[in-house]
User: Which sequence fits this backbone?
């Protein structure tokens, strides 16, 4: 949009696309919301300096090794001498901890000159941002935190996600093989090289983490399937925060 129609459409997008949801809910979608969300935050005239206001995107499931791109357009300026901030955070453990994607404000965040007037952006006063959420897995929560400095207005448009490289296209730096496959009670994943301090994740096809084995050393791991429902699963071998190998297997009765 990137014009004054933005203001009229903001309420619609907020009510239809963004809401708080328990990330442990079994109905969390396995696809993120597309880039259709618009919103704004008014720092102008807000005298509660330091007050924070959170804007949470709907959580979604994500398989490790899948590139999902957070994208949005931003327009902002400040009242001279009064600087606001924007903090963007991601959690993949239901909000127990957060990782910062962006922390910026004032002149650094501004897309045009400061003004003492109530700020409304023109078409030329927008900048585009994107962040790859490749390293995150499980339920992904994205939070925009507006930190008030009694400055001016900040606008977000075309906010959402874009699917990137699929998990089955991830390069496999460590070759693996699982036997037997399908798995009935247990199976063994064999590596073509020894690993050190690795992590093995088992995910279902909705991107939910089912099992995790950390501090893995050696050249194989045994997968216990007695408590897994029949169906298809992913496994991911990770080291130093990167996916080194990927595979699929089936569980049968």
Assistant:
């Amino acid at each position: 949009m990137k014009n004054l129609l933005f203001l009229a459409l903001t309420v619609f997008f907020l009510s239809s696309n963004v809401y708080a949801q328990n990330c442990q809910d079994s109905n969390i979608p396995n696809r993120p919301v597309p880039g259709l969300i618009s919103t704004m935050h008014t720092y102008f005239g807000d005298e509660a300096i330091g007050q924070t206001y959170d804007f949470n995107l709907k959580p979604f499931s994500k398989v490790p090794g899948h590139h999902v791109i957070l994208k949005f357009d931003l327009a902002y300026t400040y009242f001279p001498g009064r600087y606001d901030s924007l903090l963007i955070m991601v959690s993949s453990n239901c909000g127990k901890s957060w990782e910062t994607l962006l922390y910026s404000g004032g002149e650094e965040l501004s897309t045009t000159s400061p003004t003492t007037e109530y700020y409304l952006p023109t078409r030329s006063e927008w900048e585009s941002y994107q962040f790859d959420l490749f390293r995150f897995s499980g339920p992904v929560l994205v939070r925009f935190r507006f930190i008030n400095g009694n400055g001016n207005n900040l606008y977000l448009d075309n906010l959402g996600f874009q699917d990137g490289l699929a998990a089955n296209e991830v390069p496999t730096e460590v070759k693996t093989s699982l036997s037997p496959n399908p798995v009935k009670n247990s199976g063994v994943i064999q590596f073509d090289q020894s690993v050190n301090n690795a992590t093995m994740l088992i995910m279902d096809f909705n991107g939910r983490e089912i099992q995790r084995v950390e501090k893995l050393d050696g050249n194989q791991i045994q997968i216990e399937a007695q408590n897994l429902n029949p169906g298809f699963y992913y496994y991911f071998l990770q080291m130093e925060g990167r996916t080194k190998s990927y595979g699929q297997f089936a569980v049968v009765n």
